Amino acid sequence: MRFVLKRHYNEDIKLFRYRSTFFWYLGLVIGCFLLPLVLSSYFISLLSFICIYSIVSVGLMLLTGYTGQISLGHAAFFAIGAYTSSILTKTGLPFLLAFPTAGLLAAIVGIIIGLPALRLSGLYLAIVTMAFSFIVEEIILRCESLTRGNLGMMVGPPSIGTLSFDTEKSFFYLALIFLIFTLLTAKNILRSPTGRAFSAIRDSEVAAQAMGISLPKYKVLAFVISAFFTGIAGSLFAHKMTFINPESFTIAVSIEFMAMIIIGGLGSLQGAVLGAIFVILLPQLIVLTKYYVGSIPSIQAGFESGLYGLMIILFILFEPMGIYGRWRKVKFYFELFPLYKKDTFRRERKYYKMQRQ
Amino acid sequence: MSYFEAQGISIQFGGLTALNNVSFEVNQGEVFSIIGPNGAGKTTIFNCINRYYDLDKGMFLFRDDDITRVKPHVVAEMGISRTFQNTELFGNTTVLDNLLLGRHRLRRTNILKEALFTQSVRKQEIGNREKAEKIIDFLNLKPYRDRMVAGLPYGIQKIVELGRALAMEPELLLLDEPSSGMSMEETEDMVFWISDIKEQMGVTIIIVEHDMKLVKELSDRVIALSFGVPLTQGSPEEVLNHPEVIKAYLGEKDAFSPA
User: Fold this and answer.
1) B147 and B180 share a domain?
2) pLDDT digits (tens, 9 = 90+) for A62-104
3) Which CATH number is associated with domain A39-339?
4) Which residue of B has its CA nearest to A196?
5) A189 touches chain B (CB under 8 A)
6) Over the stretch B13-44, which tens digit does the pLDDT of each residue have?
7) Helix A269-293 with A297-318: angle, nearest 10 deg
8) Domain range for residue B164?
9) Between B81, B86, B151, which is nearest A210 by CB?
10) Are A249 and A77 contacting, i.e. CB atoms less than 8 angstroms apart?
């Protein structure tokens, strides 16, 4: 255990609690930048996808993990970002303009889908957002003049000025920079009044109102921010895939996103990234097992979705704080090594009923 | 004109009249208590002030502004803060964060500045923390500063809730049964704090309370309700000894005597 003598309020606000934490994260970032030098292009490509999914995960974490609003429609924001960016770059707009536009358009749609969230919660909100996702999928299918429907679109690699990110390595650096930008922005929001207002809404809407927090404003804001991040991730995704069609944005993708934040650990940005890593690497593991076990065609079809479902159930039952929660427990165990108490992380039961108006 | 005023407020839930033509005035700087047996409509008054319920008739005036039709969060923005009977805290955040949330109405930054965490945001945050630490000192919450609220004992949660209401720098403080579920010692502390809040911070306070000792000790004026109907109002001694009030609490003398 470390104890820090705090001498200024700034020390409560700063990004990293200890100096050593800062160096660990710095090391991690440097490590990420050095990774492509040793990995093969296949693994670099996987890392790029991890970055893209992490951006979505952070966006969804703000909405679901912090504000408590469920969304099964994030594949739609992802699709809007991807198609906006693809169509715009096709008309000749530079990537540097198309990229934020993708985020902004998704954010604007986020306002529209955020409005029902004012009246709905829980399962009902999940169903509305899911319906929204189907609607967007259908629109993309029908707007053939813009999106070429089922045929899909070819998308070029992103380029900024004369710099083209057409190799695996360069694209990974691009995605990594955007991920770091996303994480910093999210962290800044979370340590300021807006972030606190989000978690207030999650914990008690009644009390949040009594604090002067406008529920409509902040719920919609949460949707907007979340949609923006998902939109820019969609843009990166399109340019990474270089080919998109509506099938890349089905409800299964939304469930994958949900799985990310639950498995990673609700309510932590680290969990968001860990969840993304898990979701990207799981199919690779399945491929590996196929290599050893031999593929059984009847299992293959729904195997992946089934496994996600099973994982979510197991995590909710045994580790509601997700991978990051487990990591914290392990860390705590070693910090206190001989003195670890088993019940430190036991959730306390409450015996009195909360008043709900 | 008075500081805070309820003019003939009435509200019905289906066939039940929860409040029937209740009027009272609260002067600036005083402690005003609302008493009455269970189901008298005391908490309902608070919920109406906070705009969780819509009044059927009547209006609330706060410093001559009509607050009967504003949005719930606007009531808080105007400087009316409250606590809840059974606590409504933000359970999955720390005590400090709960207090900082109280500062929300005083926020001067927007989301774009916060996303970049500019100097103005940092300055505001430092100011917020300074105020929150002062309240932690005032209410002796230091041992719980960084603890999750959900795991704290009930008595401490009530204090945290008072602290959160204070962090709002309220003009008018609504306390819903501040002593319910608390031990003798905790109640005594609560009495000290409330009188300090009134005298040192100059906050006007409305209390809903069952503990008559606390009411007698703190209140400048009292209103008694029974089934939504105002019985009487005046000084604590007058109201507590009023025959109608005693009847409402204890029933009539021969109610249980055999016919």
Assistant:
1) no
2) 999 899 888 898 999 999 999 999 999 888 888 888 889 999 9
3) 1.10.3470
4) B101
5) yes
6) 888 889 989 999 999 999 999 998 888 888 89
7) 150
8) 89-169
9) B81
10) no
